[in-house]
């Protein structure tokens, strides 16, 4: 399974990424969702409240279970492309994801 998303890099430039999707988890300390991918030196981080993460988690489960292609796309929300173990903050996001 792959994930497509619009990302903001360290220079605040927006770029499009397609990565092999490994999973997500919530970081309570930084109030962020961390998206794990095949990029060994980067994480993808989304600032969000825990209740928004729970909604995003359910959307990811639904997208994984849906019939369709091998790509999920984050269609709403800002994703930061960070070095491993780095966290960037922005406004809390209410992301949407769908399977293509």
Description:
The chain is α+β, with helices and mostly antiparallel strands and 100 residues long. It has one domain (2-91). Helix content is 16%, strand content 48%. The chain has one helix and seven strands; from the N terminus they run ββββαβββ. The chain has one helix at residues 50-65, and strands at 2-8, 14-27, 32-37, 42-47, 71-76, 79-83, 96-99. A five-stranded mixed barrel has the order 1-2-3-4-6. The protein is globular.
Provide tags for this entry.
alpha+beta; 7 strands; 100 residues; globular; 1 helix; five-stranded mixed β-barrel
In helices, the fraction of residues equals 10-25%
Total domain units:
1
Write the element-wise H/E pattern from the N-terminal end onward. Answer: EEEEHEEE
The computed structural class is alpha+beta
Intertermini distance? 11 Å
Large-scale geometry: globular
Number of strands: 7
> Strand order within the widest sheet?
1-2-3-4-6
Low-confidence runs (pLDDT<50, min 5 residues)? none
Biggest sheet record: 5 strands, mixed, barrel
Mean pLDDT, all residues? 95
Number of helices: 1
Radius of gyration (CA) equals: 12 Å
Per DSSP, what share of the residues sits in E-state strands of 2 or more residues? over 45%
């Amino acid at each position: 399974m792959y994930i497509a998303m619009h990302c903001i890099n360290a220079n605040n430039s927006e770029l499009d990424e397609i990565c092999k999707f490994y999973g997500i988890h919530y970081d309570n300390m930084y109030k962020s969702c961390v998206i794990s991918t095949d990029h060994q030196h980067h994480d993808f981080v989304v600032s969000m409240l825990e209740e928004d993460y729970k909604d995003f988690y359910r959307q990811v489960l639904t997208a994984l279970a849906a019939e369709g292609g091998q790509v999920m796309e984050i269609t709403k929300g800002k994703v930061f492309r960070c070095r491993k173990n780095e966290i960037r903050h922005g406004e809390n996001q209410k992301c949407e994801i769908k399977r293509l």
